[in-house]
Amino acid sequence: MKPITTPNEPYRSLSPPVMRGSTVVFDNFQDFANRKTRQPDGYSYGITGTPTARELERRIAALEHGKHCVVTPSGQAALMGCVMGFVRGGDHLLVSAACYGALKTYARNYLARMGVDVEFYRPDIGADIEPLIKPNTRMICMESPGTVTMEMLDVPAIAAVARRHGVLTMVDNTWASPLGFRPLEHGVDFCVEAATKFLGGHSDLLVGAISMNDRGHYEVLRETQSIMGLQVSPDDAFLVMRGMETLEVRLAAQSDATLDIARWLAGQALVRELLYPPLESDPGHALWKRDMRTNGCLFSMILQPASERAHHAFFDALAHFSIGASWGGTHSLAAYYPAPLQADRLYARTDQPVIRLSIGLENRELLREDLRGALEAYGKHA
Ligand SMILES: Cc1ncc(COP(=O)(O)O)c(C=O)c1O
Fold this sequence. Notes:
Layout: H1 29-33, H2 51-64, E1 68-72, H3 75-86, E2 92-96, H4 101-111, E3 117-121, E4 137-143, H5 155-164, E5 168-172, H6 177-180, E6 190-194, E7 208-212, H7 215-227, H8 234-245, H9 247-266, E8 271-275, H10 285-291, E9 298-303, H11 308-316, E10 322-323, E11 333-337, H12 339-343, E12 354-358, H13 364-379
Parallel strand pairs: 2-3, 2-4, 4-5, 5-6, 10-11
Antiparallel strand pairs: 1-7, 6-7, 8-9, 9-12, 11-12
Helix pairs in contact: 2-8, 3-7, 9-13, 11-13
The chain binds pyridoxal-5'-phosphate.
Residues 74-76, 100, 143, 147, 172, 174, 194, 196, 206, 208, 326 line the site of pyridoxal-5'-phosphate.
């Protein structure tokens, strides 16, 4: 069979084409021999990308106000790939204690065993991170707010210190999405999104993205992507682009409903504390107000102390919220983080069990009813 070339018929669609291919074919010997020179933007084999993945990268970079983007097969692959691209044995890596759990596990169980000096820092450290910087500090990892107990980080302050010392910075920006916060505009080197959440928006795919401005960093990460085998299927890249078409309206509606429901919960007798920076009562509120342009769709709460059975009853009473660990989609979700998980964490915000809610696009009165019923069930065991 001959390779397929671009058809002559005029055909224009509003949808980007899904272009599959592991093999890329070349016009002649010279072209093939020089194929490596096509990187970081071009195509030489499926592992470095397809035109569909490139289109997604172009669109995400535009949203982040960045020059380049590399997409990966999950948010965790983006976090891990970004660190792997630049951190080697003998380097010192600073990781916020409120970063995504799997990133911390990767740092602790893999990087540390490969000779990286991994240090977790207090999420509220701000510019006081300076004394932690050593001559071999290579990168600082942040996530703001941390997506279980919602600690806000002073991202611009940490980025400014890092720049002065020639240290790289990476922010997991998934909570806010690029519509709510753009870390690259605050001096950060790498902005990571789990596109699995808001960008995809429908809980049906796993994709990650690393956006940046520096061409040299982009070359390193394109190579890292290829060496680690981190390419995205064109079907998933297409689905993220479809999700992004409605990102702005979804985010606006979810953000509005989330603040509304969180305020209502804050007034319920059985709710001891809301962990949610958009509320004035949250210690991260001033930073949230200064930096963020969204209420997000995710917050946590701590109920009045009661037995584990009471938490079972709360979750089992839910009818409109599904029980699940992810977030950012159109369906509302509830997740449970038991007390020992908090107590074991460095610089934990609480030692109490945490309930995390992701607010979707359902009727908000139905969601409130659901939570009212769940709190009643909890109260019977409290
Ligand atoms: C804040 C944050 N970052 C990264 C990830 C990882 O994304 P993925 O599930 O696509 O690997 C998650 C997933 O829950 C997350 O919540």
